[in-house]
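In keeping with the milestone schedule agreed at the kick-off meeting, the structural modelling team has produced records for the first pair of proteins. Each record is given below as a sequence line and a C-alpha cell line. The laboratory manager (R.T.) confirmed that both were archived under the project's standard naming scheme.
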Amino acid sequence: MSALLCPEKKTIKLLYLRLTDSAPLIVAKELGYFQEYGLKVQLQKETSWATLRDKLIARKADAAAMLAPMPLTLEQALPNCHERLLSGLILSCNGNAITLSAELFERLQNYCEGDSQSDIALALKRYLHDNKYPPTVRLATVYPFSSHSLQLRYWLRSADIDPDRDIKLVVLPPEQMLENLHSGVIDGYCVGEPWNSLAAHKGSGVVIAACNTLLPAMPEKVLTVTESWHQANPATHLALRAALLKACSWLAARTNRAEAAKLLSLGQYLNLPEELIQRSLNDQILYHRDREILANPGWHLFAHIDNDCGRPTQEKARQLLEMYSDLGSSTLRAAEAYRPDLYRQTVDFLLAKK
C-alpha cells in the first residue's frame, strides 16, 4: 500500500444486490484488491434497492453499489431526508433487458407482424386496444428512479403505449421478479442480469429487448457514499474507488470474464449456474428457450482507467435527470452528486502506482 494512502477507516461494509453487474465488488474482494489498498471489506447482500438506500443513509453501511439515478433523485424519493449522496465512480453501463411472461408472449403472437422488439411493442399496443380497462397487463421495474424505468418506458412509448395509463407499473426487487412472473403476479419486467437469462432458460419468460439496444451506454451502477461519510473518510473512499476501478478494468478485458462468472456463481454471492452468468458477461443472449443463443455486443460495459465509462460527469447526470419529464428544473442541481474530481483523483492515484 502506498505510504500516501492511509485509510481513516480500514474495516468497511459495502452493500450490493444479487446481479451480474455486482462483479466489480466480488472481483475486488476475491482477487485481493481491497486488501492491496489497506481495506478489509465485508460485502453484504440486500434484497431491494430501497432497503440498500435506507441502510446507507442510516449509516448501517459505509458504501453501496447503487443504481446510477439514485444519488441524483434522493430528494424525490425521500423529500424529508437531510443527507446527500455522491458518487466518484460509475462501475458499469448497460446490463438490463425486458422480459415478458411466456403466456403473454404467446397471446401477442396473434397481434405480431414480426419478432423484433418494435414488432412486439406494436403487438402489445394492439393487444391492449382489445383489452382496454382496467389495465390488464402488469409490468415490473426495480425502482421508480432507475435506468430500468427509463428503458421500459422508452420501449412502451415507441409503440405509443402510455406507461401510466395503458398498463399497470409495479416495483419489485430484482431477485423476486422471476418468481412473480412464473406465478402470474406480473406479466413482464425490466431487470438486470441474470434474471432475464434465467427466465428464458427456465421457459418462464421470453426476452424481447436487450436494453443496450434501446438506450446504449446508459450508466447503470455507481459506487455511492453519503457526503458526510466522504468528508470524514476521504482516504478510505479513495482506497475503495481505487480497488473497484482496478476490478472494473480487469473485468473490461473479455479474457477475464470466464473467471469472473465462476466467482459470481459462488454460494455466498449470486449462487446461480456459472454458465448462465458467463453467457451475458460474454455478450450472448438467449431470447427464447427454444431458440439459438445470439450475440449482443456491449451488454455489459465496465469502467476502465483508459476509457470514459467510469467517469461520473455532471453532463451524464443531467442527461439522466432530463429523462424524467416529471422532475422540475431545480432538480438539475442534483447533478452535483456526480463528482468527476473524485474520479480524476482515483485515476491519478492508480497511474502514480504503475
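The second protein of the pair:
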Amino acid sequence: MATTPAGGSADDPVDPPPATGSGRFGPPGRPLRRSSFLVGFTGALGVLLAYTLYLGVRNAAGILVLVVIALFLAVGLYPAVARLRSWGLPHGLAVALVTTAVVLLLCGGVVALVPPIVTQSGQFVEQLPSYVEDLRRSETVNDLVERYDLVQRVQGAVNADTLSRALGGVLGGAQLIFGTIFRILTVLVLTIYFLAYFNRLRSLGYALVPQSRRERVQLIGDEILAKVGAYMVGALSIAVLAGVSTFIFALIVGLAYPIALAVVVAVTDLIPQIGATLGAVIVSLVGFATDLPAGIACVVFFLIYQQVENYLIYPKVMRRSVEVNEVAALLAALLGVALIGVVGALIAIPTVAAIQLILREVVLPRQQAR
C-alpha cells in the first residue's frame, strides 16, 4: 500500500475543502474602490488587530504551549496510526490503540515513581522521633542551642504570619499538583483529537495556500511532518534503550528502586543535549547515598554509556530521521530552553530540521536565481 511522505496511508480519508464558495449565500460582490480613507482605515485596523493578537498570544501562552506539545506528539504518533491502518484496522481503532499504549506508558511511569516517594516519606516520618532524640543527646547541638538561643527564636518564628504563609504554601502545592494533572489531561485530549483528525487538519492547512503553490508547499510540508515523526520515534527509541540499560545496571549494583531510576533516566534522556547528563547526576546521587563504591560505579557507567550513546547510537538512529548540524542542534536546544523551557528543548531539533529544509529548497534556490 502506498504511503504519503508524512507516514500516512494513501487510502486515508482526506477531505479537501472546495476551491470556491458553495453559492448558497449569493454571488460575491465587486471589489471595493481604493481610496485614501479606506487605505488609512485598513492600515489602522491592521495595527489594532496585530496588537490585539499580540495581547491574546501573551495571555494564552500557557494554553498555546499545551497545543504545541499536543501537535508535536500527534505528528510523532501518527506514523504508528498509519502503520496500524496499513494492516487493515479502522482509523478510529488505530487511534484508540495508540492512545491506549501512551496512557499505559504514562501510568507505568507514575506507578514506578510514586510508591518509592511515598515509601521513603513514610520511613522518614517514622524515624523522625529517633532523629530528634539523637539530636537532643548530642552535646554539640545542645551547646549551639544554648549559645544562640535557638528555642526562643523558633518560638518567635512560629506565629500567625508564619502559619498563614505555610498554609499558603500547602495550598500552592496542591494547586500545582492539580494544575499539572489538568495540563496532562489537556495534552492527552488534544493529542487524541489531532490524531483522529490529522488528515483533515493537514488538508485544511494546505488549502490556505494559493493553488499555484499548493503542490510544492504540500510536498515540503509532508517532508517536514515526516522528519518530526521520525525524530519522535528515534528519540523514544534512544530513551527506552537508556532506561533499560539503567535498569539492568541498577539491578547489578543493587540500587534501590531500579524501575523508578530507569524511568527517570528515560524521561530526562528525551531532553536534547542536557537530558542524559541530568539523569546521570540523579542516579549517581542515589548511588552515593547508598554507598561510596555504588556511587563511583554509577559515575563510571554513565561516563561510558554516554560516550556510546553520543557517538554510536544517537548518530545511527538520527541519521535516518533528521540531518541536523550538531552546532545548530546545540544552539537551538539552548534557545528553546530560554524561550519556553523544556518544551522548547524537545521541539528544537525538528524545528531546525524544518528550517534547514526550507532554506535548502526555497530560500537558497531563490537567492541563487537572482
